[in-house]
Structure formats: C-alpha cells, structure tokens
C-alpha cells in the first residue's frame, strides 16, 4: 500500500539548492551578458509595480501641495509686501542720511568721497597651492590698479591686491593665514582684528576680551582704521563665541559674507589714496585760501578815498576840455579862452583847496 503523502526533501536541502542557484546566477550575471535581457524585462515589470504601490502616496502629496502651496503663496505675498514697505522706508531714510552726510562734509571742508569709484573685474585664475588663498583677475597696472587696492563682490569684502602685472593682478583673500583686517561690530562699534585661518569658510577674531559685548549673529564691518580698506563694508558674520573662564580672551569664529569660492565678477574700489596727514594739510590750505578771499574786500576799503582825491583833477579836466574846441574853432574865441585860462593857471601855482573855497565865499558876499 502506497502512503497517502509522499515525503519531500528536507528544508536544509532546499535551502542549500537555493543558495547554490543564487550564487550561480550572480556569477553568470557578473561575468556574462546572458541575463541582461531578463534583467531589463524584470525592471519594467518592477517599475510598474513600484508606480502602482506609490500611487496613493503621490496622490496625497499632490492634493496637499495644491492646498498648502496656495496658503504658503498668500502668506509669502503678504510677507513680501510688508518687507517691501519696510525697505522703502529705510531707503528714504538712507537717502536723507546720505544727503546730510554730504552737507556735513561740505561744512567741514572734507575732501573724502561718500561713494568710492569702483570698476568691474573678472576672476580668471586661482592659485593651485592649497595653503595660500589667492586669485587672479583681469585688471592690472595698465587699468589703474595699485598695490593694496580693496576687492569686494556683491556681498562684502574679499581681499586686497598684492601683486601687479600689466594686464592682470593677484588678490590675497581674507581667509589666507597671512591676512588680517581691522573690523568693528556693526551693533555696538566694538573694534577687533579678523584674521584668516586657511579655511575659506572661517575667520577668527583675535584678542577679544572674554567680557566683550559680542554674540552670535553680529555683523562685522570694516572699520577703516588700517587706511587700506574703506569703512562700512561687510566682512563677516559671527558664527560662534566661546567663553572660557580660565582664558583672558574669548574664541570668536566668523563666516565671511563674500562668496570667496563662488564669485566670478568682482569690484575694485578706487578710494582716496592720500594719507590722513596729507588730507589734513590740504584741508587747512583750502581753509586758509578761503579766509584770504573773504578778507580781501576788507583790505581794499582804505583805498576808496584815493579815487575821491584824484577826482578833483578829473573834474577840472572837463572844465578845461571845452577850451580846446573853443581854441580850435575860431580865432575870435581865443581872447576869452586866454582870459579863462589865466584863472585856471593860478590854482596850479597855489594850493587847490584855497581858490576852490574862496571863490564860493566871494560870490556869497556879492549876493
């Protein structure tokens, strides 16, 4: 009698067969291209299966994005309107402050410029040395570039010119280990020195007191104390401030505002290259010249009586002038002319003041 259920291979044998078959398929797939058509067909089937299983999730995300995007767009629109109004107000205030600054500089006879002259330059190369942060730009000595000239991009200061060629220049970036720049905290005016660390995304503020009022998020701007960089340009943003009670100075790390690794078009700043002593001397000379011009009318006032004194002979000249035509016109008029010339000659021999005063006196007595 045959048994009702035949006994098959054990589970261990089945597992071993499947393992051997899997290894064989992997070896054939790796070394030969026989299973490539099979894999492509299976990928099509699996892709459709993935699409069907992912359909509910995609439908849910699509519906949620439709309603959510409308709400977000409305909120963003309101936010942009508010920011636009605030920026317009700040722009008006900035225009008023700029005009006020110009008037105050005019009152102080200052020759410093409010807005520096800039020229656009393009980055054409980088230094291959990973330990130096230098770039090459397409403006050189023929374009008026000078050593130490500041370079910035649309976000902030980048560095300064350290090497000149006729048509190109090398710029040392702020993050180079040999570069430092005097800065100040825009919030409270705290001064410090920002030095490069060799990392294009980090600057360090050295010798900052542990009790200094500086915190994360503060904007650092150029102070202009080094007479190299113009004042007021963004340099970096404070990222981390570490206070150690056992150390006299805090550890302050900042991130440059300029895109040192991404900016392609740069700006060369042409500021006043005169020293403070020269500017002060020229301002004093200009003030002295203005004082001399203002004092010139007062020095000329004593000279006014001189034309009055010389006017007496001038008045006598017209009196004698008619005698010339009378003398030249007819011989008959010569006799009166000589008679009139005799009294005219007597004042020349005597002081002019005596006959001029005596003549009116005699006429009054006769009257």
From TrEMBL:
Residues 124-269 form the Rod shape-determining protein MreC beta-barrel core domain. Pfam families: MreC. PANTHER family: CELL SHAPE-DETERMINING PROTEIN MREC. It comes from the Bacteria. This is Cell shape-determining protein MreC. It comes from Pseudomonas baltica. One of its GO terms (cellular component) is plasma membrane. Residues 281-348, 355-367 have a biased composition (Low complexity). Keywords: Cell shape. One of its GO terms (biological process) is regulation of cell shape. Residues 274-367 are annotated as: Disordered. Belongs to the MreC family. The lineage of its organism: Bacteria, Pseudomonadati, Pseudomonadota, Gammaproteobacteria, Pseudomonadales. Gene3D superfamilies: Rod shape-determining protein MreC, domain 1, Rod shape-determining protein MreC, domain 2.
């Amino acid at each position: 009698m045959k048994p009702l259920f035949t006994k098959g291979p054990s589970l261990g044998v089945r597992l071993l067969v499947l393992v051997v078959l899997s290894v064989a398929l992997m070896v054939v797939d790796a070394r030969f291209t026989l299973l490539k058509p099979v894999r492509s067909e299976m990928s099509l089937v699996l892709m459709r299966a993935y699409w069907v299983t992912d359909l509910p999730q995609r439908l849910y995300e699509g519906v949620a994005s439709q309603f959510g995007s409308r709400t977000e767009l409305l909120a963003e629109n309101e936010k942009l309107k508010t920011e636009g109004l605030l920026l317009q107000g700040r722009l008006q205030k900035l225009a008023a402050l700029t005009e006020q600054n110009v008037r105050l500089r005019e009152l102080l006879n200052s020759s410093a410029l409010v807005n520096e002259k800039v020229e656009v330059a393009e980055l054409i190369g980088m230094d291959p040395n990973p330990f130096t942060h230098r770039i090459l730009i397409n403006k050189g000595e023929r374009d008026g570039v000078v050593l130490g000239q500041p370079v910035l991009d649309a976000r902030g200061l980048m560095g300064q010119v350290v090497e000149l060629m006729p048509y190109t220049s090398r710029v040392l970036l702020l993050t180079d280990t040999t570069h430092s720049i005097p800065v100040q905290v825009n919030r409270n005016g705290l001064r410090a020195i920002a030095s490069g660390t060799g990392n294009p995304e980090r600057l360090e503020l050295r010798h900052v007191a542990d009790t200094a009022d500086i915190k994360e998020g503060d904007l650092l701007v150029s102070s202009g104390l080094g007479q190299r960089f113009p004042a007021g340009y963004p340099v970096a943003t404070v990222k981390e401030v570490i206070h150690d009670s056992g150390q006299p100075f805090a550890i302050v790390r900042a991130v440059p505002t300029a895109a040192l690794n991404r900016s392609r078009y740069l700006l060369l700043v042409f500021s006043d290259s005169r020293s403070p002593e020269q500017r002060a001397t020229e301002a004093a000379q200009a003030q002295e010249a203005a004082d001399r011009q203002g004092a010139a009318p007062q020095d000329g006032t004593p000279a006014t009586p001189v034309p009055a004194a010389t006017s007496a002979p001038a008045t006598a000249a017209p009196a004698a002038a008619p005698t010339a035509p009378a003398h030249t016109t007819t011989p008959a008029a010569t006799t009166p002319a000589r008679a009139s010339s005799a009294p005219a000659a007597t004042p020349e021999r005597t002081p002019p003041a005596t006959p001029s005063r005596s003549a009116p006196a005699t006429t009054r007595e006769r009257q």
